[in-house]
Amino acid sequence: MVAETTNIVAAGADANIPERDAGAVKVVPRLALSHVSHRYGDVLAVDDVSLEVGAGELVCLLGPSGCGKSTTLRIAAGLEKPHAGQVFIDGAEVVGEGCFVPPEKRGVGLMFQDYALFPHMSVARNVGFGVLGVSRAERDRIVMQALRIVGMERYADAFPHTLSGGEQQRVALARALAPQPSIILMDEPFSGLDRRLRDEVREETVSILRQAEAAVLMVTHDPEEAMSMADRIALMRAGKLVQIGPPDELYFHPVDADVAEFFCQLNRLHAYVKDGAVATPWGALPAGGFAEGDGVEILFRPEQVKLGAAARDDLPRAVVERCSPLGGERLLQLRLCADSTRLRVRLPYEDCPATGAEVGVKIALSQMMIFPCRCGHAARA
Q1: pTM of the model
Q2: Which of 164, 185, 360, 363 is the most buried (most CB within 10 A)?
Q3: CATH number for region 20-259
């Protein structure tokens, strides 16, 4: 259900309103969660989460099932009351000590996984459901404008069961946009669509949301979806925010090995630090802040591996064991001849060698990521 757009009065002049520094100007985010925690019985579902979303910004809450991302969204919407922490909308406290503004007074637009359209209402009535406090003529104008934005105005008199999944998703988006909320909260809004339609509708939705200049917080478990849509990704694990930043930052500069592996399968080498470096088949990798004897994992992505001639003495040799089609690309499994280490390589179709071929393997040391070993052996005995 879309909430009524209502101005909120800050609960107390001493409310701890978060601000962001934008040069010399202090910017109050549209939505801010400050040290929010929530339990279900003995389970700590959300653990000390602080997060901000600015005007015109799309932030994706990303993580595996059960990590707390949907609970965090429900707390922002007012559908759950946290056990600790504060929530601010446009600098006004809506959740805090002795303060709880109900969802219908928060001025947010909501989109759920199942779209939550009322089956007994027409498309127009669904979209107009949250448009309150205006005349019928004005509401009709607002409804048609919202439907026009998502390209569904000709379906105003239709009922939800007569629409395709993509059309229902557009109606749900129109309903969220109709009250002109400053914040839109979306919980896995595209998961019910097939892949082709999901990609198409996702692109359209991002374009519409950019035009609306609302602050958008979207929950997803799909790394590809988050990478393609978000200005920033907030990655959650076991109730905690692990890393927040632009998609490229999380992809190329993950804070730990689990973050790196969340976005794709990686190649992994195990080694120990010796004389301030880690030996790899491609040379010595500086060990950075790791101590002598520490066990480490070296990770690098399949698309970063290149192949050369097997006759080159400066390249480790490998045998192509398997070649799996991925449309215009191929995923190869290689076995290094020296130590039988297996590697994944992603190449364009035209560059793919035959199964059984012997090749040279290239990877730049600068593209390797080094993390503490997760196998329990922190240092060589």
Answers
A1: 0.85
A2: 185
A3: 3.40.50.300
